[in-house]
Amino acid sequence: MAESSITVVEQRGSHQLVRQGARFAVLEHRNGLVYGVHEGARDGYPESAQGIRAAVGADWVGEAEARERFREAVARGEQVAQRLW
């Protein structure tokens, strides 16, 4: 059975909320690579379905939890941007 395609549900700044079937995840895009949004070291992967799956790993969740993670990631990103300006 083929895996369903990954689609972007919402994007703000460098963050994306993505969906694959009934699973959702949050990613960050920087310099042509995708990164999972989780604690600790994060490896960058090519911007492809395979790269997205590798970046997300086991961090796929339901829609409500993913949307909350997305809101938090965007807020953190905006705070960092304000400190840098």
Characterise the protein shown here.
The chain is built from two helices and five strands. It is of the alpha+beta class. It has one domain (6-84). It has a five-stranded antiparallel beta sheet. A hairpin with an 8-residue loop joins strand 4 and strand 5 (45-46). It is globular and about 40 Å long. The N and C termini lie far apart (48 Å).
- Please provide the count of β strands: 5
Strand neighbour order, sheet with most strands: 1-2-3-4-5
Q: Please trace the helix and strand order, writing H or E for each element.
A: EEEEEHH
Structural class: alpha+beta
Proportion of strand residues: 25-35%
Task: Give the biggest sheet.
Answer: 5 strands, antiparallel
Number of separate domains: 1
Q: What sort of overall outline do the alpha carbons produce when their principal axes are compared? A: globular
Number of helices: 2
Ranges where pLDDT stays below 50 over 5 or more residues in a row are none
Overall mean pLDDT score? 88
